[in-house]
Design brief:
The complex is a heterodimer of chains A (114) and B (114). Chain A is 0% helix and 53% strand. Chain A has 114 residues and is mostly beta strands. The chains are: A mainly beta (114), B mainly beta (114).
């Protein structure tokens, strides 16, 4: 069965701290795609990144970075020097190759305090 | 990328009534999906909207309760029928422009059933 686990339900940090959001996935597919989304209080789901299983290079985009470790089935997300605007619920997701749907983790609510 | 709009953005409905939600994309897309997000929960797929044929429903969701149409490659509707308070959720449409590529979400429809 395919599954995504985000063990951290809530994280609270103070502005400028670094924070890592964990994501562990399960799949029997050899080729797959992983995603991260941000859901701010307004409710819309903002696409952050898509990573395919062929590419294990870590990715950096500004203050955001992603660490993909196939050996441990993890796709962790780090925010460097966090800001209050980073406060949101963050979802990790796995694409189901059978139909294309996304299987979401339970989400991690990040609160960045000034 | 794709720009997605949903109507209505929110609604308050009475028990036993039905609501139709529209999803419009600014370009032709291969896949369209409908998700539900219950309060404080993650996203769950309701169904895949297939162009020109019946939607493919996930376990636990049935056509009589959530009829879906997709008349072309840029538009879909989801109807929530015979509503009860348990249907109070955010309903989100998402699209995948090409298989395996990024999946983008509409702004969501916040439904409250009284």
């Amino acid at each position: 069965a395919q599954k995504v686990t985000q063990a951290q339900t809530e994280i609270s940090v103070v502005e400028k701290e670094d924070v890592t959001l964990d994501c562990v996935y399960e799949t029997r597919d050899t080729t797959y795609y992983l995603f991260w989304y941000k859901q701010p209080p307004s409710g819309e789901l903002v696409f952050l990144i898509r990573r395919n299983s062929f590419d294990e290079q870590n990715e950096i985009s500004g203050r955001y970075s992603w660490n993909f470790q196939k050996s441990t089935s993890s796709f962790n997300f780090t925010i460097t020097a966090s800001q209050v605007v980073d406060s949101a619920v963050y979802f990790c997701a796995l694409r189901d190759n059978q139909g294309g749907k996304l299987i979401f983790g339970q989400g991690t609510e990040l609160s960045v305090k000034p | 990328s794709a720009v997605i709009s949903q109507k209505p953005s929110r609604d308050i409905c009475q028990r036993g009534t039905s609501l139709t939600i529209q999803c419009q994309v600014d370009s032709q897309v291969t896949m369209m999906f409908w998700y539900r997000q219950q309060p404080g929960q993650s996203l769950t797929l309701i169904a895949t909207a297939n162009q020109g044929s019946e939607a493919t429903y996930e376990s636990g969701f049935v056509i009589d309760k959530f009829p879906i149409s997709r008349p072309n490659l840029t538009f879909s509707t989801l109807t929530v029928s015979n509503m009860s308070p348990e249907d109070s959720s955010i309903y989100l449409c998402s699209v995948e422009v090409e298989a395996g590529n990024e999946q983008y979400f509409g702004p969501g429809t916040r439904l409250t059933v009284t």
